[in-house]
Each structure stands twice: as C-alpha cells, then as structure tokens.
Specification:
It is built from nine helices and eleven strands. It is an alpha/beta fold. It has an eight-stranded mixed beta sheet with strand order 6-7-5-4-8-9-11-10, with helices on both faces. β8, α7 and β9 form a beta-alpha-beta unit. α1 packs across α2 and α3 packs antiparallel against α5. The protein is globular and about 50 Å long. The structure holds S-adenosylmethionine.
Length: 237
C-alpha cells in the first residue's frame, strides 16, 4: 500500500467509467459487468434473496461505490418483503459522492435507484435510510473498527481489493473477527478463491467451498459458519 493519497487523486478512470484506486492499483469492480458479478458472487453466493427477511443483517468489508448495497436494495424490493434489511459496511477510504455517481452511471439499473443514497452521502451521512434498507457505513480501517462492532451478520460480503494488493483486508486475524461477528447459520461470499483466504476462513470456523466464479473467473468462495457443537471433538468414551 502506498502512503497517504490526497483526496482529489484517489481514482483513475479506466475505459471511461470504471474507477481504479490509485492507492491499491485495483478496480472497484470487475472490468466486465460489475452489477452482474455482484449478483452472482454476493447475492447468489449467500443464497440471497431467498434468505432476505425483515431484520436480516448483511455486513460488508469494503463499501467502495455502494454498488453491492444498491444490488441488495433492488433484490429486497423485488422480493417485496415487508420491513427492512440492515446493511453495515466497513470502509477506510470513503469516496466522494461525485465519484460514486460517476461510477454508478455505468449501471443504469443501480443508478436509477441511487439518488436517495447519493443525496444523503453527499451531505456526509454515514447512516442512511433507504426504502427497505437501513445502511450504516463504519468509516475507518476494518482491522480497528470491526473488533468494536456490536453487530452480528447473517451474511458477509467480503469485497476488499484483490488479496495480493490489499492483504490487510484478508488477514487471518480479520477473517477470525468476521467469524466472531457472524450469527448462527450465517454465511460469507467472496469473489476470490485465494488459498490463504480460504484457509483462514476455514480456520475461523466456516465450512468453505469453491463455486464457479463470474465470467472469466474460474472460482469464487462461499461458506457457512459451522455450529460450535459440531466443531468440538466428541468426548472420549
Ligand atoms: C473492491 S472495493 C469494494 C467495492 C464495493 N463493495 C462496491 O460495491 O463498490 C474495496 C474497498 O475496500 C476498502 N478498503 C481497503 N482496505 C481497507 C481497510 N483496511 N479497512 C476498510 N476498508 C478498506 C477500499 O477503500 C475499497 O473501497
């Protein structure tokens, strides 16, 4: 990771509207269709929207442009359920609303529902009420903020930049913290199939499996928290 990057130089724009972090030298979403990848990896990977219900709590590492959040908003609206879903995201380097708006314009379906979020974000709000979705973005390094979080997620979106470029968001300690902040029966999904990430999540208590990735990516990873009584060895007879 490079040192502090001035706020006005956070991004480069590739192919017109794909934001690329200068700090991490990595795009915020796939250079193909980011919204389709979000749906495949994070929604289907966590078996959403089937599991979405009033009070369901999603947590995310890496808020970025909010594209995953908006895909969740759309999925919940399409399900037509009563009540609201919670979406908590951990983000160290929040993007200015103007950059988020530019990035989202590439996804007309998401951009069409983004205005209430963008309006509140532009005013500096990090707790944002949308139709059926209560969003909180916890600003700071997730290694510092996650241990202090009192919540428990039913589903995790693990969406740091690539593990090679953003290793701090995939560390063994942080994956153990993710498991500690997961409700019984909770799940995670991530686009990466990196061996060390899968091993860390497995050591943290998830049953981890590999699934076909989106587009040209061969694999991604999903997992479900193993109940504590099943992780203990049976007592000797
Ligand atoms: C691939 S982008 C996330 C894309 C996002 N989910 C979206 O829908 O646009 C990765 C994000 O992780 C954030 N990040 C990187 N290191 C972090 C850290 N240590 N703590 C919290 N956030 C971090 C980056 O600033 C970036 O916004």
């Amino acid at each position: 990771m490079v040192g502090d990057v001035p706020q006005d130089q956070l991004l480069d724009w590739r192919e017109g509207d794909i934001p690329v972090s200068r700090r991490f030298d990595d795009p915020y979403f796939s250079l193909g269709n980011g919204l389709a990848e979000t749906r495949h990896v994070f929604l289907t990977g966590n078996n959403l929207p089937q599991r979405l219900r009033d009070g369901f709590h999603i947590a995310e590492l890496g808020f970025g442009t909010g594209l995953n959040m908006l895909a969740t908003l759309i999925a919940w609206a399409q399900k037509g359920g009563a009540g609201s879903v919670r979406f908590t995201s951990f983000e160290a380097y929040p993007l200015p609303a103007v950059d988020i708006a530019r990035a989202l314009r590439a996804f007309p379906e998401a951009y069409a529902v983004a205005a209430p979020f963008l309006d509140q974000w532009a005013q500096g709000a990090h707790r944002i009420s949308l139709a059926g979705l209560e969003v909180e973005v916890i600003v700071g390094d997730a290694r510092d903020t996650l241990p202090n979080w009192a919540g428990q997620a039913d589903a995790w979106f693990l969406d740091g930049f690539s593990p090679a470029k953003n290793p701090e968001l995939w560390s063994t300690d942080l994956m153990a913290m993710v498991a500690a902040k997961t409700a019984a029966g909770g799940t995670f999904a991530t686009y990466t199939a990196a061996g060390h990430v899968r091993r860390s999540l497995s050591a943290a208590g998830f049953a981890v499996s590999r699934q076909p990735g989106h587009g040209s990516k061969r694999h991604m990873s999903v997992g479900q928290l193993i109940p504590k009584d099943q992780t203990m060895m049976s007592p000797p007879k």
